[in-house]
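Appendix B. One record, verbatim.
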Amino acid sequence: MFDLRTSATMCVLVGLGFATAGCEIGLPAGSEPHRELNFLDMADQPKAKPQRSDLLGEGRVGMMAPPEGAVSVNEEIYPYTQEQGELAAAVSNPLVGEEVVAHGKFVFDNVCITCHGPEAAADGHLTKLFPKPPSLMTQKVRDWSDGRIFHLPMRGQGSMPSHSKQLESHDIWSVIHYIRTLQGRLPVAPPADLAVTKDGGQP
């Protein structure tokens, strides 16, 4: 005799079976539930996970290295090494215009200000924890060409790392324009070897 309740129960059980077919069904995944090739890990599907290495020798990885010599779209290769600052000095600033100065201020206030301070006087917040950079208001920096200044964030100097991967070249050129406006309205700072720190010592 056909039992409606038994039939309904069977349907529910079959439905649960299909619903849990891809689940762990309450089974523990072990101490490393997200290790590679753990068949109880639902996330371990036939796909490339971010930064996954080639586990099975099939040439499939989650992060492909670009071909040797490849560059990003619109990327400009900076030709000078860290030691070639004097050669870089001959490079002219390609940007002009008030909008360039405004963009330079925006970049300076969001990137450079943490170390160089609001008026490029080397009094940013990070100088309390890291070595103090030189003031950009000294006569020495004022006498540098734009290309010479551009070289420093491109290749880094002292405790300042290269910013060439964080900023586009037009960002740095714009910052230089903004620094020139600061130099035009602020007094000349004493040389670094004569400047005195807050504790009375030499920088």
